[in-house]
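Support case: user asked for a sample of complex input and structure output to validate their parser. Sending the pair below.
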Amino acid sequence: MSHDDDGLPARRRFLAGGAAAAAGALTGGLAPSRGRAAEAGPPDIPEWMKVPGADVGSQTYGTPSRFESGVIRNVPQRLKQYLSASSRTPLQDLDGIITPNGLFYERHHGGVPDIDPARHRLMIHGLVETPLILTMDDIRRFPSESHIHFLECSGNPGFEALNGRTASDLVGLVGCAEWTGVRLATVLREAGLKPEARWVVAEGADAAALTRSLPIEKCLDDALLVYSQNGERLRPQQGYPLRVLLPGFEGNMSVKWLRRLNVTAEPAYSREETAKYTDSMPDGTARQFTFVMEAKSIITRPSGTQRIAAGFNEITGIAWSGRGLIRAVEVSVDDGRTWQAAALQAPVLTRALTRFRLPWTWDGRPTVIMSRAIDETGYVQPSFAALTAVRGLKSFYHNNAIVPWRVAASGEVTNGYA
Amino acid sequence: MSHDDDGLPARRRFLAGGAAAAAGALTGGLAPSRGRAAEAGPPDIPEWMKVPGADVGSQTYGTPSRFESGVIRNVPQRLKQYLSASSRTPLQDLDGIITPNGLFYERHHGGVPDIDPARHRLMIHGLVETPLILTMDDIRRFPSESHIHFLECSGNPGFEALNGRTASDLVGLVGCAEWTGVRLATVLREAGLKPEARWVVAEGADAAALTRSLPIEKCLDDALLVYSQNGERLRPQQGYPLRVLLPGFEGNMSVKWLRRLNVTAEPAYSREETAKYTDSMPDGTARQFTFVMEAKSIITRPSGTQRIAAGFNEITGIAWSGRGLIRAVEVSVDDGRTWQAAALQAPVLTRALTRFRLPWTWDGRPTVIMSRAIDETGYVQPSFAALTAVRGLKSFYHNNAIVPWRVAASGEVTNGYA
């Protein structure tokens, strides 16, 4: 690629703040506070160059820099208990589409079990020709596959929870990883499905024995039994040593610590698909088995609690759809009056986070910015008003509304709902 | 996808061990030691279901299960010092193509500096119109990109180092991640290149002030200034807060802890491109500036120190090429006499690890298995004999020979070179 054909704006645009540059540039249009000329000579030799650094990794698993100690999962404060609770991915601090395992959101219903993989078993029974009990070694002998997919809690955020400060507060119950495991279809075929098989009831080996009914069509499509995430074995918080992954479906169905698959003709109507994880509608009825996570997006930079300067600012964020590929993301920098197509970072993968970006020169005046995702089915992410016009305000799950960020004259960014 | 059109072999093949299944199957062709029938009832409730598990992540960065404590970077034993040393990615324990940051290989020349990002500066000077000194905040204001690429040390392995036991011992100086940063071309354009600019001399802020000369063509092509790896900020071992990434080039050129880019007409002829990182040839001359990492592959499962059972075993591994896409990987299960095309896991990305797989039914007889990568230029990974016929044995760097694994009648897998 040559110097000229990369589609980027002309030289020396990015650090030239709007008003600041015109008034105070030292050289070449550079704002003095952001990039300075170096004629005065190189910076001092920092102290970290004057002494040897730390030894090569001393038989431990690596960790981030101490200067990043604030980048951790976002755990709600002052809960009555933390056994059935969640933590959120710090989306506003992350780049790209891969969520590192140490920062991937969690949701537990009976705490995180400490499972010895040598003693873990998966039982497959019910409407099968040959019931099976498999060890982890058995499961790792099957043909494997790896796929990059998002995973998202269906309550991300709940309809009442629009008062968060950060992107993580609002939609941090999502992450994206490269998952490796066995196609669930392969294991079900090993047992042999009987013709009347319609559901697979999955049970976790946690203290809640979390149970969900999985429709057979999904189990025979892209569903996986996963043992690795981002190269390494699943973390305990993600279901070590074995979980289901139903790409694009609400996260609760991707049962962790998987110990049992009971093949049935009817769903189990478990707690997690009756008392919970149903959608209360305005007319008093409830939608059940609303599996698919609809298209959603959020701007992660700039986002709540961040502060920007006038001039060039890249707008970037993530989009995803449980129905497949993201076709487009549109961004508004004028509170929804006009929309521009953002660039999508390749690779754009089905049921994975997709990173979008839009160059933006902020004029320093207060405004509201927001994004909306459009998926391959043509579905367009709705505004909160449009969503609640249909769904009402009794719902908790499956809120995929547009998230607006307010930008003040000071450059401070805050939640546009609040 | 239906039950039948997924291209997998017929039901109940995978757990049916060859000889073992014929002799001892309980039901449905299952080897008794690997998958057993469940008519006797479900397994006992394990103790981890009887008590609540651990609380949701308590304000810390997550870590792997204690049962995976042996999966760490592979650090050589009994070195005289560990400041200028390396650690290797545990390839045989990993799946997919993403290397988690906690396990990514390291190579340091003066230890790992502990850099405060607020005080870090990047100076760009030499043959530029406007010298610049940039803060990390400045760098993060430029337009960003994310790309999945491998990074590999050029001495992976050295020509003399073929006696390792594991895949990590042999070629563990490689990893693959999603990198986010700014195109180097964008930053150079901000400074303005003078017409005579031909090289960019990059200097690290470590105690070694590691210095390499980067050809301008690469700097204006796909080179990046990287601040994030797999979503989060670079680890200290990977150059926190800023490094160069030259996709496909030898790892040493992707200068870590980057503090200076000096644009020049000639290379610097630094230590790392004269005394080191040149290739001694049989005629006594040395090749210099051999930047590109040629196509390579290795089978990671089964691989050295692992043990397999007769019957179905998936062969899987990784392939990569500094010249672009992997077009094909061929696998031999008969010591190189015949070769079969392996399946490549999508997405296949340029200058990234590519996961390959081949189903294999092992008959229990001793053999040797190996893989060879073919890249989009048509280049075929050579045998060690073919490589040394050209390169001799005086070289240390750029050994991309085929790695054979010996499979004994016992199922034990060992280094086929040893």
